[in-house]
Amino acid sequence: MARILVTVMLKPEILDPQGAAVRNALGRLGLTGVNDVRQGKQFVIELDGDLDADRDALLHKLAAELLANPVIEDYRLEVDAQATA
Amino acid sequence: MSTARVGVVTFPGSLDDGDAARAARVAGADVVRLWHADTDLSGCDAVILPGGFSYGDYLRCGAIARFSPMMAQVVEAARDGLPVLGICNGFQILCESHLLPGALIRNDHLHFICRDQRIQIENNTTAWTKDFPVAHEIVIPVKNGEGGYVADDRTLDMLEAQGRVIARYVGGNPNGSYRDIAGITNESGTVVGLMPHPEHAIDTLTGPTADGLPFFTSVMSFLNSAGHRTDAHAGVTA
Amino acid sequence: MSTTTRVVDTVQRAATTPDIEQPWADLGVKADEYARIREILGRRPTSAELAMYSVMWSEHCSYKSSKVHLRQFGDKQPKTDALLVGIGENAGVVDVGDGWAVTFKVESHNHPSYIEPYQGAATGVGGIVRDILAMGARPIAVMDSLRFGAPSHPDTTRVVSGIVAGVGGYGNCLGLPNIGGEAVFDPCYQGNPLVNALCVGAMRHEDIHLAKASGVGNLVVLYGARTGGDGIGGVSVLASESFDATGPAKRPAVQVGDPFMEKLLIECTLAMFQAHLVEGIQDLGGAGLSCATSELASNGDGGMRIHLERVPLRDATLTPEEILMSESQERMMAVVRPENIEAFMDICRRWDVIATVVGEVTDGTHLQVFWHDDLIVDVPPRTVAHDGPVYNRPFSRPQWLDARQADEPTAEKLPRPKTGEELRDALLSLLGSANLSSREWITSQYDRYVLGNTVLAMPDDAGIVRIDESSQRGIAVSLDCNSRFGALDPYLGAQLALSEAYRNVAVTGATPLAITDCLNFGSPEDPAVMWQFAEAVRGLADGCLELGTPVTGGNVSLYNQTGETAIHPTPVVGVLGVIDDVRTRVSIKGGRIGDVVLLLGTTAEEIAGGEWLHVAYGHIGGMPPQVNLAAEMALASLIRAVREHLTSAHDVSDGGLAIALAELVLRNDYGLSVQLPLQTEAFIALFSESVARAVVTVTVADVDAVMAAAAAAGVECTPIGHVTSDAALDIAGCFRLEVEQMRQPWQAALPAIMA
Predict the structure, then answer these.
(1) CB atoms A25 and B55 under 8 Å
(2) Fold of B5-237
(3) Which candidate in C266, C447, C448, C471 is best for mutational testing of the B interface (most B CBs within 10 A)?
(4) Mode of pairing for the β-strands spanning B84-87 and B103-105
């Protein structure tokens, strides 16, 4: 079994209203020095069997096109080594 | 006797605060507009948390509003019996504040939905539903993007067993709420969370029906029956 | 610790280095325009000045191709007392009585909505709402006119779902009811979807605010969101000129809207108006600070000095040129007296809105922009904001139009349904078509209840909102266009859009008062397209003069084309009406069993450009329905006069009488038993799209009164049937359709397209 973590974040240059609202809330609740907050989402994908090269390539393609909106978002794909047997 | 004071809290991003205030006024209340950053309940006998997108609903709906100074007062007073009605975003804030169990999540069909919705009132003993007949069916607007009520089975069973499901969707569930739940109450029947919008159904000119008005007259009846008014401000409005 | 050393292109440097090559062509500036800038300034522009001129003289901001034609809206403006503020401000303002003023405007956000449908549509709504707010009004409702490509095209669902979610996401979060609009599918919009968003706002007469900076010493305040690199892709050539090392960071082409910030901006701005803290105000939209500063300064009575380094940034790497150009959303600029600034800042703090004094009104005549201590812009503001180039682009009637207009859809060439069964199937196919089926998939994603003043919303003919709870005064708005009519004849097409929007407002019982328009066309560099544009403007101006309803403002969107293929001419027309008591409005919903159904207006054989022809054959040919604005006015005043007798009313337009009757049945769950007039072929009676018609229901007792009023008004009035209890549309001698038989295809069509 393989577990893959895909993190999708707005591209750095794109405005993140969610992050900005959370940043302000953290400040109000007493956390000083909050420079920036970016809010993203994470997909945890569990696969039967190993992540072979074909599936890895397809996964990258789908992460870029489906999980992320390539116009405004980037993705990062990691294999969760601990959960991956 | 002085007119009961009903407070309507405005958070940054509240949208239906004016409508909730109008509905309470039509029901006969002396309406007080409360500001999220203030700490004074202004002697209100009951409080409405209106619909909207407080703080843009950006972290989770209601998650940031819950930490406002006014909510600290509302939570404390609610524990002492202050009637509180949370509508839509207000319901979400009540759940985030743990005054009500469960949570509200994204609609199962993933779209915002605004439609006229049939609802059955299942508990007409709460502070906010006592003017409804038993098992009464009404039509009021529902409008939400994250209105699916969820809780674990144990909580749902408890709510059912205690009669705390106060309203259920009929004729089609608009958002995937578990067990078609449209609204619930706390153990004492004073705090009610409701996903549909009774404040948008107080007359047939601007709403689909006037079926929503009894929510607001109910709290007036509740407050006017003996023993439910806070005394602190009696001199203020007398 | 930056390794880049920036050369600030100051005014002084510009004066002493006249021969430096500037990338004017890359910024879309033409050689003669660049020469004119040099002539105005008496030197070469600084890079910041060049950036400002390039964006303010762009088609989008300067209307340089359309201006010569748009003048007709002023030249042919009907005499009216209703217009308080006309074309040229952020939006026109109309007197609706009792001291109330209403401002409304429709604006396009077409291209961005193709690139990133959700954000494109969302920021389109945000932009028009700020325009309305900047007039001093509380925004009270929005509408959207949407056009998408072919329902079957693989890209259409992406565009539709994103745009609809964007319009809803932004408007819902702002707390503005969406009260109507249109959604049309046609292959001509495949690569060029149209998002035309309308906002309407209300205020007291004395609260009207204008975009002007006057009063020497008054402070210029920027408030709202921080400035980022949004929408400045084109200007990065300037930035790269100025950097000697790695070049600028990547700038996003997509603007992201923050409706929560906009909601705060609305409440904060209205609180300032109420406290009389604002001398002049302008929203920041296209061209951002360049536009706001030059507009405010040129409409004022002095100069303006701006300290650009004070602008709060989201991205610290922005260059001064980029800051001037940024189209970051949710920002406003206000002119405030020094003695009011503390109160102004208090309100901003209350609403968590960042506000910064970035400059002041001066006693000079120039707009001066400083970057720290360096003067980087020193221009007469009018030359930037108002004295841009004006083009008399060549236009000529395309030769192919003759063949198109001659291609009449005759019965011989394109056989029509004749038997009852064929007519029934024709109606069912229209009900299940992309353009006439239920819009619920779209409209259920929009909040129509918020603010508690919505009296009518989709699927009614017009939206109505109450503006005064004590007097029950309200306004009605409709937004319409059939672009196939424009493709057959742009002059008539524009008038037919006007005609329909006017009628939609009138059938609710409201009095039409004023117009806003969004003129969506292809490339002005194509003489055929330019001719279509010129004809549409001429048609609309002539039509407005005849109807007595002035154009108060609007928007032009050109270059809506893919390669050589332009969209159909799409002049979307918004009509604003007033109704003195919203309780007297007439709706599609209504009518009781036994009521008589009356057809108002005259039906001729007018099929070309209509929905039946589109659905059955996809044929574009022939001449559109005849325009008869006098008949529209007669119908409008008739309905107004007899509205208390009408139990329901519905305009007859797309799909003809058949669709109007079917929609009544679908909306009311009652039946209609109809006898078509014998003198007309059943197909024509059912599917012709002749103008100035409506179906109304009246109680039996009121029939004579309505007939007499119609006769007096010169409106043909034909009893065609009555309301029944059997939940079916029964056309005597033709067919009978149960309501559920009609509902099935009508409700299934849009969800099937989106599945």
Answers:
(1) yes
(2) Rossmann fold (3.40.50)
(3) C447
(4) unpaired
